């Protein structure tokens, strides 16, 4: 599977980021395994340790398996001033996980991230590709329940 | 040629080439700028910020390591502000560092410790916030302690850019940034070839050799054991300066005396098996030349190179000499020939090797190197460990009376001793191969074209009856890669290698620049040590391996002839293909001759 994804891109170093995204997105657990890195290294002729350095540099990539839905709560100052720490506490309580962990039912992984560029709606979080703004503790509970129900 | 520019550093007018950085210009003129991550052998990484200087016209200080000089530049290297910056930087590094100096292997050699001391930094100025991480003990050669790492990046530069091994990398960022291997799998599960250049360039004790001193002391202090020691060619030129002697002093006979005083039962010399290697490898080379072989013969002494070859060039493994390294030849002979000659039960023999090398620790543990019926070499100590041993024993090395080694496996020629410098094995081999091909002695034994520190050296030697023998010498694995790529390409395009015979050493400068050599092992001191070996060569009565009387004796009494069935069994080996991901054996690619 990894080989097929690589083959969609020209074997040049500048495609590393795109291939990493594509492979991570295609994986049901949204992560980059050692096996995937070996395949990419072989395809692009970029050493595995360099790829590992890139993966760990960017917070969007993960080297460990994650849940079906990835929650990224903004921890930048504007969101913090508008109460993102309360939102974080609420998320931890209703999900029963710490930052970086995945719920037992493998439905959610809780992460923190830097500014999402919608400070006007702080505090803000993303779940997968959707942005949720003007968060309150009640609103967060609603959003999570809704996604739980959907899955 | 870059044009010169006028700069003023602390009021001194300098005229320097415009392609220098400020720190290079200052170094060239003896002006010291405090530094931590910068090392003159390596490209700057600009990680630490200690080398900041003030420039006229610049509102902020600049890093001297990565700021080029410019016409009219006025540089100030010391001011109230700069002193405060530097102190704060060191205080911050120490606050995230395991400060255990007295027990650290880098004590008194540590660049962080020295700088903190020179700048008068209070180690308790900031609270220590270090979150302890696990030390990586997985490798038989190199231990990595992240708690002492200051993330200067030198190890990463040397591992990736100089050696092209691609084991170490940066991971994460900010406070979580660290030096690690891919997926944090540990050195033993990475493509690390154990060359230990990272330990040489580490400014602190974060990277160090696996210490085997206690095991060796235990063997020495066990009356039941007969402990034999060998020392690599480069050791004799790497000990003196630790005891106040000039860099590159030749101290072979003081070394024997110290080893005997420490308590080794038999003190002999790897240089003897270096000569023996020439006989085995030279014979192999001549057979290939006479058969008109299109594939080259490549030397096999350097264990870092061998693992590198098994990882990155296993398709060319058949080109590598099957001869074991001088260390492993000595190991197997210590438990066969020596045991037999002296009537000692080989089970009671402990064979110790003192090597400039961390990769030799890995080599000694290769399961296939046990043709004596035992592990051929029991323990390998680096030069650094040996220096600690001399100090622990309280030996006044500079003043110890010189002694001769024990006979049997210790006599050596000048050819044997130059094994320790890049090009030395090639030169030694040519001195004897010439005789093997022509039946005559080579008059001028000094092959200057293969000496020196150029990364890849090429030479051609006219051998009557054969023609031009084309040779290449590479030191440092990045240079080895260049040579191997050309061999691979040549074989692919016209079925022929550009050279007949190739010497490869994993470490820049050869063994004198080995990963187990004393701290402060920069290119300049490697060059000086190499020259010392050539000086010793010139002073020795025998300069060709085949004229070594003890070598002649071992063939008469024990081995028969070079490449004889017994020599094949004891002195030759075979190679594997290894995974680029984790360095583990995948399959055997060459086989042992029987």
Helix and strand layout, with pairings?
The complex is a heterodimer of chains A (151) and B (594).
Chain A: H1 2-7, H2 16-26, H3 34-44, H4 48-57, E1 69-74, H5 77-81, H6 84-95, E2 108-113, E3 125-127, E4 130-132, H7 137-150
Parallel strand pairs in A: 1-2
Antiparallel strand pairs in A: 1-3, 3-4
Chain B: E1 4-9, E2 12-17, H1 22-28, E3 52-55, E4 62-63, E5 73-76, H2 80-95, H3 111-118, E6 142-144, H4 154-162, E7 168-171, E8 178-181, H5 197-201, E9 207-209, H6 213-220, E10 226-231, H7 252-262, E11 266-267, H8 270-290, E12 297-298, H9 303-312, H10 326-334, H11 337-342, E13 349-355, H12 359-364, E14 379-382, H13 383-392, H14 414-417, H15 424-438, E15 456-463, E16 467-475, H16 477-494, E17 501-505, H17 523-539, H18 549-559, H19 565-571, E18 576-578, E19 585-588
Parallel strand pairs in B: 1-5, 10-11, 10-13, 12-17, 13-14, 16-17
Antiparallel strand pairs in B: 1-2, 3-4, 3-5, 6-9, 7-8, 15-16, 18-19
- List the domain count of chain A as a whole number: 2
The CATH architecture of the largest domain in chain B can be given as 3-Layer(aba) Sandwich
Trace the largest sheet of chain A across and list its strands: 2-1-3-4
Mean pLDDT of chain B: 96
CATH class of the largest domain in chain A: Alpha Beta
Q: What's the CATH topology label of the largest domain in chain B?
A: Rossmann fold
> What is the CATH homologous superfamily assignment of the largest domain in chain A?
Glutaredoxin
What number of structural domains do the residues of chain B give?
Answer: 3
- CATH architectural designation of the largest domain in chain A: 3-Layer(aba) Sandwich
Q: Please indicate the percent range of residues of chain B in DSSP E strands (runs of 2 or more).
A: 5-15%
Overall shape of chain A: it is: elongated
Low-confidence stretches of chain B: none
Number of helices of chain B: 19
CATH topology of the largest domain in chain A: Glutaredoxin
Largest sheet of chain A: 4 strands, mixed
* Apparent shape of chain B: globular
Rounded Rg of chain B: 25 Å
Strand ordering within the main sheet of chain B: 2-1-5-3-4
